[in-house]
Amino acid sequence: MKALHRFGATTVVTLLGLFIAAHQASAQIKIGAVLSVTGPASFLGDPEKRTLEIYVDEINAKGGVNGQKLQLVVYDDAGSADNARTFATRLVEEDKIVAMVGGSTTGSTLAMIPVFEDAKIPFISLAGAIQIIQPVHPWVFKTPHTDRMACEKIFADLKTRNLTTVALISGTDAFGKSMRDQCIAVAPNAGINIAIEESYGPRDSDMTPQLTNIRNKAGVLAVVNPGFGQGPAIVTRNYRQLGITLPLYQSHGVASKQFIELAGPAAEGVRLPAAALLIADKLPASDPQKPVVVNYSRTYQEKTGQAVSTFGGHAYDGLMILVQAMQRAKSADTAKVRDEIERTKGYIGTGGIVNMSPTDHMGLDLSAFHMLEIKGGDWTLVPGT
Amino acid sequence: MAELLQFVFSGLTVGAIYALVALGFTLIYKASDIINFAQGEFVMLGGMTTVFAMLAGVSLPLAALIAIIVTTAIGLALHRFAIEPARGASPVALIMITIGASIFLRGIAQIIFDRRFHSLPSLFGDDPIKFGGAAILPQSLVVLASAIVIVTLLWLFIDRTLLGKAVIATSANRLAARLIGVDTRRIVDLSFAVSAAIGAIAGVLITPIALTSYDVGTLLALKGFAAVMLGGLGSALGAVVGGLLIGLFEALDAGYLSSNYKDAIAFLIILIVLISIPRGLFGRAKIERV
Question: Which residues of A fall within a CB distance of 8 Å from B206?
Fold first, then answer.
């Protein structure tokens, strides 16, 4: 009896959903988004949601896409992959979306991939891990650069400075672990020899023992620290405390003003790879990304009163790649849109210049990263990177 | 040798942090048998309030004073509005209340302050003191010295003042204490206020080394609690020795073995100590105290 009730209720809701969907189908293109707006990953989901809302409004104010307005349906997974999958199913079955921009974390993205693959709906993820696009899923794309690229960028810089024997000190949190694995995987190809490896807990308050071991290791020419949060700031301080003078490389995980504030004078001379968005005002006028990142930063700051983060930029890129694909396809047909997303060439976004292909569903190369050096408490671009 | 000395310096730095956090557990436990799991949040409030008062343009000493007063008031409120109304409940239920309070305070802090990491300036600058080929920050010595000062003050208070005797009387038998004219509610009030103040002082002093954010309290409370268990519940000296020992274990593990096993080995040693000396290094059986 209870089951029958539930069946009845579900049917009514579904029919209602279908009715509403059918009613609006003529006028609107529905785009779904499952984002971690609250919870531990809210630093990702919150700017992503704000960005999508700002730009969907802006596109609609200019007349929409192919004469149809966009309608954004956002669900908050609160950082849980389980919730993400439930919402993904709801977007497909009840909201009848034509495309999806979102999935703030790697975990939620991986949980949602089967749903969109089965439903044959284009899915542009905003999460970092390389597993999202390798192996290639026909309907799944992503906009952010990967940890692997950050390692390759650091190693390329080390190679040009002829510092080929390095020490690795990484955090044991998800970000630090994942990037450490990628760094170790790409090191041989990049011609880098990792002589010693140390790690620290994400909440540790002193890393001098690990750094002492690195200092005492013969032959080390530079130190690389894949990490996120406050750990890298403490590593940098302890580095100076011990008087280590080898070049220190941090990761894109701490590419924010906050790192310079926390590490203080110890941050002087530290190098790290970062996306163009964080150094919008520092880019030379000749840089093709300059107008895009300056515009996005200005718009986001005006509308929200907050500083830009790269994460909001990933959402901007996802939405624009999708909108441009729909314009080229001259329709919102899911299969045509998918084909056009895959044909994206020379899209200039906040994360880099995107050239997708059937084998590359991210489309970024190492030029997406700029090598920065901290001088006088501010970023400077390292020439020639 | 220089290597070992550096590991010891690291251990003292981290250990002094744990010791200062652990001290906050002592007085509340002494007066009421409650282990206050919101102690880590007192530390967080001390650090974060100072950071935000300084952002508002207040100088460091005044900001620290504001933070200590605010945190003390919150400690009092915790007792008056959450612990006292449930005073008939078992210690386990009261401990649950403190866990709830810790989650509540963390949630509020995340709304009132923010979710970013913050730092504070060190009292004597960031130039390390070099000794025998190893380096230690002056702030680490400040934390260590403060722990020693607080232990001494607590000892003087408990052993040398009438009010201190009243705390012990309250802990030993609340009804009997009340019969001889001790206002036990006031005494427990006092213990929460002083513990909160110790937590806030810890927060101000360790933030230049360990940084702070709305959620630093959880892990600090856990490590502080481990230090208290190792040193012996209710013993201020035990809290400091326990904290320093755990810090040293961790630093030596990170230096000589792998930092992956650091926490595991530290807790393994605690287990071994507790199995052989269940009351901890400096713990005394209650019966001896009465």
Answer: 205
B37 assigned to some structural domain: yes
Q: Is residue B4 part of a domain?
A: no
Predicted ipTM of the assembly = 0.87
Q: Does B148 touch chain A (CB under 8 A)?
A: no
Please count the other Cβ atoms lying within 10 Å of the Cβ belonging to residue B169: 19
Q: At what angle do helices B217-231 and B262-276 cross, to 10 degrees?
A: 30
Q: With CA atoms as reference, report the closest residue to B42 among B236, B239, B218.
A: B218
Tokens at residue A77, please? Answer: 């997974």
Domain tally, chain B: 1
Q: Rg of the Cα trace of chain A? A: 22
Kindly report the CATH number assigned to the domain that includes residue B232: 1.10.3470
Q: Which domains does chain A have, with CATH numbers?
A: 2-145+292-364 (3.40.50.2300), 147-280+368-381 (3.40.50.2300)
Question: What is the pLDDT tens value at each position of chain B, 290 positions in all?
Answer: 788 999 999 999 999 999 999 998 988 888 888 889 999 999 999 999 999 999 999 999 999 999 999 999 999 999 999 988 987 888 889 989 999 999 999 999 988 998 788 999 988 888 899 888 889 999 999 999 999 999 999 989 988 999 999 988 888 888 899 999 889 889 999 999 999 999 999 999 999 999 999 989 988 998 899 899 888 888 889 999 999 999 999 999 888 887 778 778 777 877 888 888 888 888 765 554 44
Which residues on A lie below 8 Å from B117 (Cβ)?
229-230, 233, 258, 262
